[in-house]
Specification:
341 residues, alpha/beta, D-Maltodextrin-Binding Protein, domain 2, 15 helices, 49% helix, 16% strand
């Protein structure tokens, strides 16, 4: 009987110890959850394209895991989400193409409703590209240079046969921009100004998918291709493409027949004014947020190659590029993020 009572006492003691531990852990977890819940939720805009979503997920991961703020996303068109940013319904716009919404942006800044914090990437580009093997060849693939002296858009007339249009072989084929885009109007004007319409057919791809498919098809076969594209995109991350030279941008040349390169677009992190008081440490982080067009294209290429979403691409970026993003935040924040990803 004594032995039996002793076993019961030990059993009761073990249960008591276990309960104390569970309560302690629960209390600890509750305190952490309470601390996080006390911080205001930060709302991100998402206009729907992959690079926008990727930069959102990088910033959200750092803010949630490193700073303990809850976050959420509001989807919509670039116009609607930017309106939401100005009105204060949205806190952060990670990929603001300022030139595309210049009037609304200028007014928002002038009224003090929004604040530009940093450049998401300062080196976006668009223009007329060719696969680099067209100019330099590709020894690994057994491709010899086809147009070794091709450097400028204005060199294209002498190479029209290299890019011969199979449907109308008396001219070359130049793939145009997406119908409905301002770039389509600009490029059609350029073709006239440069006189390319005399030696090339302007071929409308019909859609983003149609244009990218034409590049993929030509590149995989090692065939010539020339046409409009832009950065950053997964295409530019996966394939070696060369942007043909144009005269540097000037307002006079641009207004006179688009006779120069497109101006680089200022792609920025822009926030609503209230975030400066709402989450000052997050603002300090976003002021240092800075990538490049190539880094973004590489991330988009990772998404495409591995068939993963932007959240997985953000994890990949945080693991592969610690040397970059850890400079954006204090060391203790960086350690929290590295522990959680």
């Amino acid at each position: 009987m004594k032995i039996f009572r002793k076993i019961k006492m030990i059993h009761a003691f073990l249960i008591f110890t276990l309960l104390v531990s569970v309560v302690g852990l629960t209390a600890c977890g509750s305190e952490k959850a309470k601390a996080n819940s006390e911080k205001p939720k930060i709302i991100f805009a998402d206009a729907g394209w992959d690079s926008f979503t990727f930069h959102n997920e990088v910033a959200r991961a750092i803010i949630e895991k490193g700073y303990g703020y809850p976050t959420d996303v509001t989807m919509g068109s670039s116009t609607l989400t930017f309106t939401g940013l100005i009105q204060g319904d949205i806190d952060v716009n990670m990929e603001t193409w300022i030139e595309n919404i210049l009037d609304a942006y200028t007014e928002g800044v002038a009224n003090g409703d929004i604040v530009r914090l940093s450049s998401t990437f300062p080196d976006s580009a668009q223009g007329i590209y060719v696969p680099t093997y067209v100019i330099k060849g590709d020894e690994k693939r057994g491709i010899k240079p086809i147009a070794p002296d091709l450097k400028s858009v204005k060199d294209l007339p002498k190479y029209w046969e290299t890019f011969k249009d199979e449907e109308e072989p008396t001219k070359g084929r130049l793939y145009g921009a997406i119908p409905g885009w301002m770039a389509d109007q600009d490029l059609r004007k350029k073709v006239e100004t440069y006189g390319l319409d005399k030696t090339y057919n302007y071929f409308s791809p019909g859609s983003d998918a149609g244009l990218s498919s034409s590049i993929v098809g030509a590149y995989e076969k090692g065939e010539p291709w020339v046409g409009y594209y832009w950065e950053p995109t997964w295409i530019m991350g996966k394939y070696d493409m060369t942007l043909l030279e144009e005269e540097p941008y000037s307002k006079e040349k641009w207004e006179n027949g688009r006779d120069c390169a497109w101006t680089p677009v200022d792609v920025a992190v822009v926030v609503h004014k209230d975030l400066l008081q709402k989450a000052p440490e997050v603002v300090a982080f976003l002021k240092k947020y800075h990538t490049t067009s190539k880094l973004t294209s590489d991330a988009l290429s990772y998404m495409e190659k591995n068939n993963v979403d932007a959240k997985e691409a953000a994890k990949w970026f945080l693991k592969e590029h610690e040397d970059i993003w850890t400079k954006w935040v204090p060391s203790e924040v960086a350690e929290k993020v590295k522990t959680e990803i």
